[in-house]
Design brief:
Helix content is 33%, strand content 26%. The chain is α+β, with helices and mostly antiparallel strands. The strands form six sheets. Strands 16-17-19-18-20-23 form a six-stranded antiparallel sheet. The protein is elongated and about 110 Å long. The two termini are 64 Å apart.
């Protein structure tokens, strides 16, 4: 079966279910019948002023039957089905011998055939041997009907079914410990009991609710993991391209220096040439400089000065884009961890990103002179910040000798951290520590590459291989 070990579509259960349905539906009138999707059929019966609801659901490569004594409100998306038996009375419900199917016969001599065949579950309306209508029209084989096909004559199948041991009139819904799967059983099992009943209609309904909830959660979780992994892969590729672009821009010969070299050789540059080899007095070597042939030497120098100014703007924009991508990646990776850890639909529900809503950044964040300062929120969050989301050249800070938040100053390619930024970051680190109430507090700092977490250390605990100390007033900027 599609749900391993479950007997919700086993012959012995379907047979007992049909017998119970015969009593439940006998004499009732089919008031309405409709589909609310390609996966769900609803049939409303009326008996002694009571509404009886039968649902057939095809999901997760299996089929489910639900039976309810409740009022059902038909939605606007309902599509009529089996119209020729509306207002017809149920004459009987009969199981097919040794088959996973049964007949519901109506007063106009038409019959509904319930085929409980796992992923191929279907309900077919027949008039003698002609198919009139069906629930799942896409199952092409069901358009051909022959009543004799439901007569099982295979002796091996009959003998196997006759020798099967079970407890008649007792049904259990279990949750398997091995794979956390729900299943229906006709005998006692060692797994966790979710429900026990003597009514096969209740057994089918309760199993369907448990199984649909469990399978729906698993499918949603798998889908969400795949979506997050795809987004993470895409962002990592963008980060890689951004880092390559920044590296290329940083390591290019500074345009301002090229402008100075041109101005120093203004009388040695021929007119209307596309390139010239000049001595680079910054690096003590000759370099080939590209020129615009329609410009003279001073104009070419001015062109490179403009490029130098634009380069600074471009580098700042690229660094900000990279930072935004890194922050976005952190949010998605942390969400992926939470999705993987989710145990039920309630835990999974908030773990999705709306296109209209930005990812929540998981650390405290400050910006000082365009330098990003990130601060951990607790011991576990400190570990995530330091171990996963800090670059080796980030500056790492922590209040000395007491518990407190890990704090980092994100490095900027080709730029050193100003002393004022260091001071502010140290003040923040002292503020989010046991030194908060002191007038002055010592804060140690070092490059992240000199911070390590030995095996067995508690959350938030690390070791610094080298450090410097600064005294600051604990406060926020």
């Amino acid at each position: 079966m599609s749900i391993p070990g479950s007997f919700h579509q086993h012959y012995h259960f379907i047979k007992q279910l049909a017998v119970a349905l015969d009593s439940w539906l006998l004499g009732s009138i089919l008031e309405d019948s409709f589909t609310i999707s390609k996966q769900e059929l609803v049939m409303l019966f009326r008996k002694n002023n009571e509404q009886l609801v039968v649902k057939v659901i095809s999901k997760f490569h299996s089929g489910f039957l639900l039976f309810e004594n409740t009022s059902y409100h038909k939605g606007s998306n309902a599509q009529a089905c089996f119209e020729s038996i509306i207002n017809q009375q149920v004459k009987s419900v009969k199981p097919h011998l040794y088959n996973r199917s049964f007949l519901v016969m109506f007063s106009n001599n038409q019959s509904l055939v319930f085929k409980c065949y796992d992923a191929l579950i279907n309900v077919v309306l027949v008039d003698e041997d002609e198919v009139v209508d069906m629930f799942r029209e896409s199952i092409q084989n069901d358009w051909t009907y022959n009543s004799s096909e439901f007569e099982v004559k295979d002796d091996a199948i009959i003998n196997r079914l006759n020798t099967y041991q079970f407890e008649p009139g007792k049904y259990w819904v279990y949750k398997r410990e091995l794979d956390d799967e729900c299943y229906l059983s006709l005998s006692k099992q060692p797994d966790k009991i979710l429900h026990e009943t003597n009514n096969p209609l209740d057994a089918a309904t309760l199993f369907a609710r448990y199984a649909l909830g469990s399978l729906g959660f698993k499918q949603t979780k798998i889908s969400r993991i795949a979506s997050l992994e795809g987004e993470i892969k895409r962002i990592k590729q963008q980060i890689k391209l951004s880092e390559q672009g920044i590296k290329k821009l940083v390591h290019e010969s500074p345009f301002e220096e090229i402008g100075h070299i041109i101005m120093a050789n203004i009388h040695n540059i021929p007119k209307q040439v596309k390139q010239v080899e000049l001595f680079d007095f910054y690096n003590d070597k000759k370099i080939l400089i590209k020129l615009k042939s329609d410009l003279d030497a001073p104009a070419n120098a001015a062109y490179y000065y403009r490029k130098s100014k634009n380069k600074k703007i471009e580098l700042e924009q690229m660094e900000q884009k990279l930072l935004n991508l890194q922050q976005k990646l952190i949010g998605f990776e942390l969400m992926l961890e939470q999705v993987n850890a989710a145990q039920n639909a309630k835990q999974l529900k908030p773990l999705q990103v709306s296109k209209k809503q930005d990812m929540v950044f998981p650390f405290k964040r400050f910006v000082v002179q365009e330098f990003e300062i990130w601060v951990g929120k607790n011991a576990a969050n400190n570990d995530i910040l330091t171990q996963k989301y800090s670059h080796k050249n980030d500056l790492w800070l922590h209040a000395k000798g007491v518990t407190g938040s890990h704090t980092i100053i994100k490095h900027k390619a080709g730029k050193s951290i100003p002393s004022q930024v260091l001071t502010v970051a140290a003040q923040i680190a002292a503020y989010f520590s046991k030194h908060k109430g002191n007038t002055l507090a010592p804060v140690c700092f070092t490059l992240k590459k000199f911070v390590r977490k030995p095996k067995g250390f508690e959350p938030g605990q690390v070791v610094m291989d080298r450090e410097e100390v600064i005294m600051v007033e604990p406060k926020l900027p």
